[in-house]
Amino acid sequence: MAKRPADTADKPARKAGRPxxxxxxxxxxxxxxxxxxxxxxxxxxxxxxxxxADASTQAPEPGFDQRQLIETLSLNLAKAAMTAQSAIAExxxxxxxxxxxxxxxxxxxxxAMTSVMTSLAARPEKLFQAQADLFxxxxxxxxxxxxxxxxxxxxxAPADKRFKDPAWSENPMFDVxxxxxxxxxxxxxxxxxxxxxxxxxxxxRAEFFTKLLTDAFSPANFLASNPAALKxxxxxxxxxxxxxxxxxxxxxxxxxxxxxxxxxDYGRFTVGENVATxxxxxxxxxxxxxxxxxxxxxxxxxxxPLLIFPPWINKFYIMDLQPANSLIRWLSAxxxxxxxxxxxxxxxxxxxxxxxxxxxxxxxxxxxxxxxQSGAKQLNAVGYCIGGTLLGAALAHMxxxxxxxxxxxxxFAAQHDFAEAGDLLLFTDEHWLxxxxxxxxxxGGVLPGAAMAETFNALRANDLIWSFFVSNYLMGKxxxxxxxxxxxxxxxxxxxxxHMDYLRSMYGKNALTQGLFEIGGEPIDLTKVTIPLYFQxxxxxxxxxxxSVYRSARAFTNAAVTLTLAGSGHIAGVxxxxxxxxxxxxxxxxxxxxxxxxxxxxxxxxxxxxxxxxEWLHSRSGDWIAARDPSKGPMKPIEPAPGSYxxxxx
Length: 650
Hints:
- The longest helix has 32 residues, at 64-95.
- By secondary structure, the protein is α/β, with parallel strands linked by helices.
- It is built from 21 helices and 17 strands.
- The protein starts with 29 loop residues before the first helix and ends in a 10-residue tail after the last strand.
């Protein structure tokens, strides 16, 4: 089993809420403490001169309270500045002995922007039209601002969570600032998108990073131009900024010199105690996975068990966060014998593990052990995200061998055809892959978990980066106690051989549906799969876009495929219990050529799609038998669920 490395994230939780009194920064180095004392002594007011004994009975001087507020604000601003400066200095020292960044432009943005700018320069009439358009937009902005100043009601602004505070609309200065930013950013992004004679991938890279840039320069991300942050600063006499800089310093320390923005109060959750608590037993453990069998929740269970393969890029307990939204508990309550493959968090010793190892030592061995433990001759399987990619390849591999141990399979947000795999395609050009490979070599043959987290966060920068930057640092709030974001930050490492093959073969070449992919010398042909398949896609999924999942479903041309489209995104679209009464889903028994045709003929249903899938699964899970007890199977329990592998930190 992989050893648990030292984890700097396991620290006492910060208390939620805004501070009500100045708090001293935690001690770090002697130099920092000395510098802080000097700053406070300079910022603090001089000591008052002695007064007669009865001075306390005298009325305070006019303006005394105002001076006290100004003095407190000055002191807190000095504290905040020194905290930030000390944290940055410590971060610089901690990074001093590390190698410089592998490339100043790891995502190869400069050539993409050069191509776009060259195309625009070659068409001066287009630039002239764009400039005229921008001028016209600003004329409209100034005219509407003048009308509002004269008493006209403002035009409703577009919905944007960054500007939800009423001051962005009620205060004329911030209203103009917000509207000016939206005009400029929309114009800039539109200009890049208007380029026509550039390679589509190059253009998409330029569009993506232009959007990242314009998002970063939002006035909401700066203290001086964020009315909500300024209000908090005034109401707390600067204490919100002191707390914000303490949060900033703590995140730099947690990232060992790199800013690792906290998305949740990590100290509030412990795997196996208040997340991942479904009862069960680890019944098998080897170098690659633990097999967990969950306790029965009914007196009778279906004869054919269910084995779930989660992505190895994340930990499986997204399916078991809390009892109310646990997919594992729901499946047990429906009468299914549930097994889960809990992948090891790989370390350097697994650097050379690739698809052959994850197929033979992972999928095949896990199927063997689940069948041995359940006494069944066949099982049904589920593959989530990248786990579904591997499961799809495994089904084709098994079909070539005439292996029928899996009778039906389900895919959650899984891709097999990567032709329209969304913005993640931007991170898979050869220039970037070389950078990733060097990063993995420097880490001993594994990709650090934080690297993939940064990539996924970049896909939704406003939600997963800037919102926390504003809340944690500018507003001084404690991160929320949110189990989903706790899980999101609990990333795993990835072996070099497996990850590079996945990126180059799937995203780079779309090899799985082109007949170009092999595992252990065996060509993988998805058309050989003939068992029933159930595909779930999510309408707002930014990691496995719905069109990509739809193309993947159609790649299994000789299988009976059922597809359901769920509301929401990559996580909430999947983890949506019926009791929540949230979102909706669409069903259509046909599978026409395009997703647009499918949606045109689909029937919208309220709430979760789990019930529809449950009916499909029941019809393919055999007769009812006496419930299975994990402690009474041929493989004796090793330890209670969720096991040990899921607790190993990256």
